[in-house]
Write a structure and sequence with these properties.
6-stranded antiparallel sheet, disordered N terminus, 473 residues, alpha+beta, 8-stranded antiparallel sheet, binds zinc ion
Length: 473
């Protein structure tokens, strides 16, 4: 039996370095890379360290700031240290965010008015914000009260846009617009009878964004972030293409990648939440591949090529040549230990030296000797399944941890190493980390959509292609 699956090697891009030759060439041109960041190593879980050269550009990693003016404000304007208020900034009218501007265009305030923008972390900070811009307590208290009454506590930062005008005894509050990033909040207005508040609903919509770029000399990760592909989508992107490309060896500088993904944006067009990938493609000088995410009305969602053919291929049930099954999956009398024990795999009896094949495309997770298992290989497949091969006499050339293998590629030869009664291959398949009977695996490899499902797929494919054409020219 093999140990529980380990996470120490996966489809994480941390292992996807640019080929050594690339990096070497680059270093020859640019021989002074910066020192590695503290803690940087190939084992780091920090995706920013998944680079071949320590000089990978760090700057593009940062997501575009939602409020760049706040940073500017730090250097230029007063910072209010009152409770809940983060930053105070005075903007000329019309230069601020469109959201608040739009809200106040209906009835324009007098020309002498100013718009002050603050960010607070909670509705409780509204009162302090009003105080900080000079609204006297007699106005600030009731205005804050009507605003707070319409806003639930929490919910994240609130951007306050206050329209005020100089008046005797301080600033007169004309309007207050308090919004969360999703657009929900309240608009407070001063009227003859005091302040009135009207809630605003969340204003989120889903848009499809497309990014396209070239591989740089460093890594897929740095290439992707420089094109503003969100961190959380980088692993899924590579996993989708893992059946088709070896990201460690087959992707080179200048190769072109493209991704389309859903993005939830607020009324100002700011990204509030990133959804799922809808399209991935990679073009190298040798091959190109484009995949579309699709959920059929019946059946599993997944990646399909442009003709509606699924990229998921099942694992081989018999990954060894000319073998007979000598022990089936399930409970059995253990031939060495003598007691009844669960047999988590299938044994194939075959002469020593018989080729053993990778049951499916994947990455080698383990290829080493372990006392009971002998020489063993574990392969992680792109759908998360694992296949495990025990008691090998030898490994095929190139079968090392991290190597990418194709279905049917020879990974080693039958042997009787470890605890074994004779020459055989013990073969296991784990689905969601649970051993399953390999003979029960469905053989629907590369299944193509048909009929209504294919028609629905083509509609989705064309929708994505239209959006791609509009955004990438
Ligand atoms: Zn066995």
């Amino acid at each position: 039996m093999s140990e529980p699956p380990s996470d120490d090697l996966s489809f994480d891009p941390k292992t996807w370095r640019s080929p050594v030759g690339e990096t070497g060439a680059r270093r020859a041109v640019d021989p002074a890379p910066a020192a590695p960041a503290p803690g940087e190593s190939s084992a780091s879980l920090d995706p920013r360290t998944w680079v071949a050269a320590p000089a990978a550009p760090a700057a593009p990693v940062a997501r575009p700031s939602r409020r760049p003016f706040l940073l500017l404000a730090l250097g230029l304007l007063a910072v209010a240290a009152i409770a809940g208020v983060i930053i105070v900034v005075t903007l000329p009218r019309g230069a601020g965010d469109g959201k608040a501007g739009a809200a106040s265009t209906a009835d324009s305030p007098p020309p002498a008015s100013q718009r002050r923008v603050l960010v607070v972390s909670d509705p409780a900070g509204i009162r302090g914000a009003l105080d900080s811009v000079g609204v006297p307590p007699a106005e600030a208290a009731p205005a804050a009260a009507v605003a707070i009454a319409r806003m639930a506590p929490g919910g994240g930062d609130i951007t306050l846009a206050m329209t005020v005008a100089p008046a005797a005894g301080g600033m007169r509050l004309l309007a207050l617009d308090a919004r969360h990033d999703d657009g929900s909040g309240v608009v407070v207005k001063a009227g003859a009878g005091g302040f009135t508040a009207a809630p605003t609903a969340a204003d989120l919509r889903t848009v499809v964004k497309v990014v396209r770029g070239e591989m740089d000399a460093y890594s897929f990760y740095s290439s992707a972030v420089s094109q503003h592909l969100t961190d959380s989508l980088i692993s899924p992107f590579a996993q989708a293409l893992a059946f088709d490309f070896d990201f460690q060896r087959e992707i080179h500088q200048g190769d072109v990648f493209e991704a389309a993904f859903e993005d939830r944006v607020n009324g100002k067009g700011e990204s509030v939440d990133v959804g799922r990938l809808l399209y991935v493609s990679m073009q190298t000088k040798d091959k190109s591949r484009a995949l579309y995410w699709f959920q059929p009305a019946q059946g599993e969602a997944g990646w399909f090529d442009g003709n509606g053919r699924s990229t998921v291929r099942s694992l081989m049930r018999t990954p060894v040549e000319g073998a007979r099954i000598s022990s089936t999956f399930g409970m059995r009398e253990h031939p060495i230990l003598g007691f009844t024990k669960m047999h988590n795999g299938i044994d194939f009896a075959a002469p020593i030296g018989t080729p053993v094949y990778a049951a499916g495309d994947g990455i080698i997770q383990h290829a080493e000797f372990k006392d009971l298992d002998g020489n063993h290989v574990e392969i992680l497949h792109p759908n998360g399944w694992q296949s495990i091969y025990l008691h090998l006499s030898a490994y095929a050339p190139g079968i090392v941890v991290g190597a990418h293998v194709r279905q049917g590629q020879e990974i080693g030869q039958v042997g009787t190493t470890g605890r074994s009664t004779g020459p055989h291959l013990h073969y296991e398949v784990h689905v969601d980390n649970v051993p399953v009977d390999p003979t029960s695996l469905k053989m629907d490899s590369g299944k193509a959509l048909e009929g209504a499902a294919l028609a629905a797929f083509i509609k989705e494919r064309d929708r994505i292609d239209t959006l791609r054409a509009a955004q990438t020219g």
